[in-house]
Amino acid sequence: MRRILVTGASGGLGRAIAAHYARPGAELLLWGRDKERLDAVAAACRAAGAQASIRSLDLSAEDAAVAALMAEDAAGAIDIAIFASGLGDIRAEGALVEDPALVIRLGKVNFVAPAAMAAALADAMARRGEGRIVLIGSAAAFHALPFAAAYAGTKAGLARFADALRLAVRPYGVGVTLVSPGFIDTASGRKVPGPKPMILTPEKAAAIVARAAERKQAHVVAPGIFALLRWFDRLLPAFLRDRLLSSLTPPGR
Ligand SMILES: NC(=O)c1ccc[n+]([C@@H]2O[C@H](COP(=O)([O-])OP(=O)(O)OC[C@H]3O[C@@H](n4cnc5c(N)ncnc54)[C@H](OP(=O)(O)O)[C@@H]3O)[C@@H](O)[C@H]2O)c1
C-alpha cells in the first residue's frame, strides 16, 4: 500500500492530484479546510478503489500542522507528500500594495507551513532512507510582480527552500520535487483578472505533477513557455526588465 499525502485536496489542483492517484493499492491522506469538499473528494477516491481519509485543518496554525503531519507519519510511513495547498491573491482594487494582513496570511500558507512540514517530513524520511516530497510553487515565483508581491515572494521563497532541501536530503534517499505551474483553471486561478495564456486543466496539471514525482525531477516549470519567460526575465537588462514589470497591471487594478 502506497501512503500518499495531498494538502489542498479540497481545491482544484489538489482534488485532481488525489483523483490521479486514486486506485487500488493507494492510501490517500487528504488535507484541506472545507470538510464537505474533502468528504466528496474522499468518496470519489474510494469509488476508484483507493483508501482515503480526510483531515480538516488551517495551515496558518503551522505548529499544529507540523504536529498533525508527524502523527500521520508515525501512524504509517508516508511515501509521497504533495503540498498543493496555497493561496493566490493580488492587491485589492485601488490599492497600491497588498494589505499587510494578507501578506502575513500568504507568508504562512504559501511558505511557512509547507516549508516547515516538508522539513519535518524530510527528516523522518531521511531516517528511513526513502520518500518523496513535492512542493507546488508557481511560475510567478520568477518575476517581481508589482501587483502580487506577496504571492510572488512566498512562491520564490518556497522555490529556493525546495532546492536547498533537495540537496540536504538527497544523500539520504529522499527526493524533493518542485513544480512551478503557469495558469491552472481552478477557483483561485479564475480569480486572477486578465488573460491566462496556455492555461492548464487541473487534470493536466495533476498529471504533470505526478510525472515529475515519478521521474524524480528536481524542478518542472509548466507549460514550457513559462520556463522561457523565466530565462527572459533573468537575461533582460535590469532597466528594461523593471520597465516591463512596472507596466504589468491586471485589468481593473
Ligand atoms: N490556479 C493557478 O492558476 C495556479 C498557478 C500556479 C500555481 N498554483 C498553485 O497551485 C496550488 C493549488 O492551487 P489551486 O489553483 O488548486 O487553488 P484552489 O482551488 O483555491 O485550492 C487551494 C487549496 O488550498 C487550501 N488552502 C488554502 N488556504 C488554506 C489554509 N489556510 N489551510 C489549509 N488549506 C488551505 C484550500 O483549502 P479549502 O478550499 O478547503 O479552504 C484548497 O484545498 C497552490 O499552491 C497555488 O498557489 C495555482
TrEMBL record:
Classification via PROSITE patterns: ADH_SHORT
Pfam families: adh_short (PF00106)
Nucleotide-binding is among the record's keywords: no
GO cellular component: membrane
Keyword Oxidoreductase included in the entry's annotation: yes
GO molecular function terms noted in the UniProt entry: oxidoreductase activity
InterPro entries: NAD(P)-bd_dom_sf, Sc_DH/Rdtase_CS, SDR_fam
Protein keywords: Oxidoreductase
Entry similarity comment: Belongs to the short-chain dehydrogenases/reductases (SDR) family.
Protein name, entry field: Short-chain dehydrogenase/reductase SDR
